[in-house]
Amino acid sequence: MQRLEGKRAIVTGAANGIGRAIALRLASEGARVAIADVNEEDAQEVAGEIDGETLVHKTDVTRDGDVEALVGRAVSEWGGLDVMVNNAGVGVAGTAVTTTEEEYERVMDVCVRGTFLGMKHAIPAIKDAGGGSVINMSSVAALVGLVDRAVYSAAKGAIYSMTRASAIDHVGEGVRVNCIAPGTVDTPWVARITSGYDDPEEARANMRARQPHGRLVTPEEIAAMAAYLASDESASVIGACMVVDGGVTAR
């Protein structure tokens, strides 16, 4: 039996990058997966890669009604919800001086509000299903200082803190809340960030060098951690920040 057999999961920001890898991994472990993203076309492509039961739901995680409808649809079609992966996020390169207010608002809205709304609507559904797992996406930027990532670091730090508080709030309801803190992951978002530098190849090399193991983390490595946190094997992992960073935080 696959370790996620029978589980019903939602993954936000699942059309590409880390979210796509998580959706594919959870499905490969036997879960039914709701693929949620603002990019419905790419989300449909991800669903097409899965040999199992899926649903695709166009979702703007900054809109309460969108997230409520997403969770409601999963519960309606599948009879409940066991796993919520709040993965949707955006980032911006910049310091507290160079980042614009608009960039600040966008990053905080998608990352922090999106995670908050995901928990707000998913936790009651998971409780009603008898318990399960909420997985939030933080970052090593929440744990160490990174150059040119002031607002992104603030957003991911907020997710880390909200994860720990929520874990204590809901552990008695059978809902485990944890987060993952990736290092620099080889995703389309990283490609967009590096393309904004004068020398994109140098910027990418600097990102690789950030990890002591000398390479970018893969989306599949983050997905493996998500699968563990979604499974009953992690029943005593509560309020944890699971670091997958190639050694960044070991320094």
From TrEMBL:
Q: What InterPro entries does the record tag this protein with?
A: NAD(P)-bd_dom_sf (IPR036291), SDR_DHRS6-like (IPR051122), SDR_fam (IPR002347)
CDD domains per the UniProt record, alphabetical: SDR_c
Taxonomically, which superkingdom? Bacteria
Q: From the Swiss-Prot or TrEMBL record, what is one GO molecular function term?
A: 3-oxoacyl-[acyl-carrier-protein] reductase (NADPH) activity
- Keywords, sorted A to Z: Oxidoreductase
Question: Under which EC number(s) is this enzyme classified?
Answer: 1.1.1.100
Q: Which family does it belong to?
A: Belongs to the short-chain dehydrogenases/reductases (SDR) family.
Q: What is this protein called?
A: 3-oxoacyl-[acyl-carrier protein] reductase
